[in-house]
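ingest -> validate -> predict -> emit
validate: passed (alphabet ok, no gaps, 95 aa)
predict: started
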Amino acid sequence: MKVVAIAHRSETHAPEDFAPHLDAEVDHALGLLSEEKIREIYSRTDGKGAIIVLEAENEAQAQSYLDSLPLAQKGMLTFEVYGTKPYRGFLRGIS
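emit:
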């Protein structure tokens, strides 16, 4: 199933606190992308995190992928996680 996560940067950490960990974060995210666990990732325009589309069996599995990210392990990122299903409007008229 596709799972959408909204990542939120910790407001208790200054931007310079993130800098030493960004290379490890990118490397780990690219690893999850190459394993097809992350499908898409976008930076939020407000600079406060990211939007991530994952492929997982359920929300709990997606959360475990997210929890493996270095910034999450350091308490610098939290996530809202939402499972998805096809939009019901698209099923109209299909037998």
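The radius of gyration is 15 Å.
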